[in-house]
Amino acid sequence: MEASPVPVPPSPEARPRRSGYRRLPVQQRREQLIAVALELFASRPPDEVSLDDVAAAAGASRPLVYRYFAGGKQQLYEAALRTAAQELTSRFTVPLAGTPTEQLAAVLESYFAFVAEHDAGYSALLRGGSVVETQRTSAIVDDVRRAALKRTLRHLGVREAGPRLTLLVRSWIAVVEGASLTWLDEGRVLPVGELRDWLVDQFMAMAAATALHDPQTAQTLTTLLALEGPDAPRAARLREALGG
To answer: Is 132 a domain residue?
Structure first.
């Protein structure tokens, strides 16, 4: 009787591998999972994204995701949110060229590029009510708003802002956020350039109204208009509205 042949194990090259899975260094794998989560949270509200979705998109397993984020979806969401917050804060950098209002317009354009890129996640984040919203996630969002306040005041050349000037800038930041959400809700019908210019004019108008009640804001606005130059259309319109 002829003996059966001994099975030969397949070579490493012939063994099937999990589709899309690659061994990565610890930090690189963590960054990859955060990047994948950011993409998913940007396209869908956080409540609709599961760990299985993240694992599948990353070409990894659910246990592997838990290995890096033992707190599950909540921990991963907070890590992704911090990364997005850092990116958004980096958009507040003011360019060196241009008048003050042109510089502000450039920052807004960069801001709206971020809003457009993160769409659903941005909406869910600002509206709140998400099951993954906590005091920590709210604190991350508040940090972005504080950074926006600080950099706007620095742009205006103000070191120590009084209560009215602080209220002016905080209120304008809220207007920007509200306009962003409305822009997304209405299908981005309004061109970004028009929305950007309207928000710059909105800031100038709010500053003019505040200047009637606050000497610090009045001085800041006077300095800003001087830097705009006598021929700047926006400054000319505002001077006309202010009666000179």
So the answer is: yes
Query: Going residue by residue through the chain (244 aa), what tens digit of pLDDT does each one get?
Result: 444 444 444 444 443 334 444 566 778 889 999 989 888 887 787 788 899 999 999 999 999 999 999 999 889 988 888 888 888 888 888 888 888 999 999 999 999 999 998 887 777 667 654 555 678 888 888 999 999 999 999 999 999 999 999 999 999 999 999 999 999 989 999 999 999 999 999 999 999 999 999 999 999 998 988 888 766 676 666 666 555 5
Domain that holds residue 70: 22-79
Residues near 35 by beta carbon (within 8 Å), at least 6 away in sequence: 83
Six-digit token string for 182: 């409305």
User: Could you give the angle at which helices 26-43 and 73-90 cross, rounded to 10 degrees?
Assistant: 80
| pTM for the whole structure | 0.78
Verify that 217 and 119 share a domain, yes or no: yes
Residues 214 and 108 both lie in one domain:
yes
